Amino acid sequence: MATTAAGTEAPAFYDLDPHEHPAGGSTMLGFWLYLMSDCLIFAMLFAAWGVYGSAYAGGPTPKELFDLKLVAVNTAMLLFSSLTYGLAMIASDEDRRGATLGWLAATAVFGAAFLGIELYEFSHLLHEGAGPQRSAFLSSFFTLVGTHGLHVTFGLVWLAVLMVQVARGGLIPANVRRLQCLSLFWHFLDVIWIGVFTFVYLLGVLR
Amino acid sequence: MSAHHDAHGAAADHDGGAPHGTRKSYLIGFALSVLLTAVPFAIVMADGIVGPQTAAGICMVFAVVQILVHMVYFLHMNTKSENGWTMMALIFTVIVVVIALTGSLWVMYHMNANMMPGMGDMSGGM
Fold first, then answer.
1. Where is A83: in which H helix or E strand?
2. Heme-copper oxidase subunit III family profile domain spans which residues (chain A) (predicted)?
């Protein structure tokens, strides 16, 4: 009885061996998860800014310190770099190594310009005595904007290394994968900057 | 075996790779971003076109819209890539971010409001 019942059931097979996945098949998902955890770091820094952003301790206020024209130029630099990176990715899709390297170089120039303007702004603030030790407002400002700037710095280092790799090895799958990871990283930093210029600079000046 | 492997590899190559945009989609995203950045800056820099409350509201709405534009046109978010896991991770992150931000602001606002008089509120002088 039991044997006939078992015999009518279709046998089920479970494949317990790991499948052969192409190299780097899970890299993009893994990198996305890293970006999401990075997003949580920035969320904490934004929360700190939200709490401390108006604790001036009798010191200078955002309205006195922030130069919105400079911030607008800075925002434009980062936005241009996002566009040029996108064009680099399209060039790599079309397997044009020279164009890819050209757009990557343009991205690096815009990224470096962004960083240069930010460092100029920081040195200007420090010169005016508005360093991170002045008030909780400035501590949280330097932590949040500085962390973003550090990310851009490491993005630039990564970009330079990738340009060397693409120049040497060409647009092989491994290099294209690395370009895609940096693409996510770079555009992600631009998304964070939207939060920075809105909540730190624009709303700070409005307060 | 090799046929299976080839098919698997081809499929992974087709939809496993990161989705990418076209020149047109990048330029549309860029144009929208320029607009969504320029308007809030213009409103705040003009200083007094609208009240500060309205200006702050406009800035925040434009920021949210611009983040969505970047997500779609630059980060190529969709519900299908990596079988939906990127979207799941994003939704989870957004939930945690919203809890952390609203929780921090809410709790600290009440702490501040309930401070003993004479100790000075956080925006006061030291």
1. helix A68-93
2. 1-205
> Which of B22, B59, B125 minimises the CB distance to A58?
B125
Of A48, A86, A191, the CB nearest to B26: A86
b/e for A169-194, b at 16 or more Cβ within 10 A?
eebeeebbbbbbbbbbbbbbbbbbbb
- pLDDT under 50 in chain B at which residues? 1-17, 121, 124-126
Residue B49 burial (CB count, 10 A): 11
Cβ of A28 within 8 Å of Cβ of B17? The answer is yes
B5-39 pLDDT per residue, tens: 443 333 334 444 456 788 999 999 999 999 999 99
ipTM of the complex: 0.86
**Interatomic CA distance for residues B34 and B39, integer angstroms:** 9
> Do residue A93 and residue B66 have CB atoms under 8 angstroms apart?
no
- The CA distance from B7 to B4, in Å, is 5
